[in-house]
Amino acid sequence: MTQRYFPILLLLLLATVHVNAQSGCTDPMATNYDPTAVVNDGSCVYPLTSLSLSPVTDLTTPLLDENSGLLYLDGQLWLHVDDLDTNLYRIDTTNSTVLESLPVRNAWNYDWEDISSDSQYVYVGDVGNNVGSRTNLSILRFDKAQLSSGAGYVQVDTIRFSYADQTDFTPALDNTRFDCEAFVVVDDTLHLFSKDWVTKRTRRYKLPAQPGTYSIAPVDSLEANGLITSAARSADGAIVLLGYDNVIPAPCFLWLLFDYPGTDFFAGNKRRFSLGSAVTAGQVEGICFTDNRSGFVSNERFQQIVNVPPRLKRFDISAYITAPITAINDGGLRQLRLLATPNGYVLEHAGIQGEFSL
Q: What is the domain range of residue 159?
């Protein structure tokens, strides 16, 4: 077959397969895996699974007791705290020594809760709202180059927002549906995940990653069965949501979201992992990827029944995603891949998101 006709044939073949595609659970690790399914419909169910976190170091510097957000960038780990402190801290991951303290010069820390980045900017979420009465919620944005500019500080732009579905601002400590501690950024859009103290279901909001003032409405939601405290996205599209339940024994957990269409994170596979109890492991607060399958988790100091010091740990999800998951906007064809064989080309149901190479 001549190469110039191959893309046309491929498109016709994909269209034919899509029309006749059977939907269902496409993950072999799920209890309801359907080997005949071609399109993942997000219905996968998973067994109860524990995920072990590997100790890295205690965060011994007292100013890191209230650590909240983690960012791994260019081989360096940065973190911030959620209590008035307007510095970004670069730390040594072997012993938690603070290597650099970088103040944010033109912003106030009302309640910084998470941090993320894209190809150009770093975003700091001043989004904490555990009383439910804030009217000054914002995301702070600055160019990544400022981290290494040598200026000794960073200056930020501000993305201001409010929740279109919030009408009552009566203070209600730890009893509000409009707290937030987690977000990721994808293609010039910030995706915020609510920390709902009332229903323990997280709602996702979309916010333009550009300075301005916005009113945002919920897009969809996930039955989190707990309080979401941080989020991160790998370079190839895996999303992790970190959290805990505030009812003793305060179980901590991680949600893994993958094989979803476009940016509909809750429409793909959703697997929950137990991380143990905050009573022994601390209240988990920050998460970031260092590569596509592993990264860091941090907990703040936990002083309820016992005194658990703040710690840095590693997580690894490589055993639960066995193939690349590069997300593509394919209208549901992400379960297919084209393989070159000695006898020609084979269109294979891969059970993953992937790309076609022509």
A: 49-320
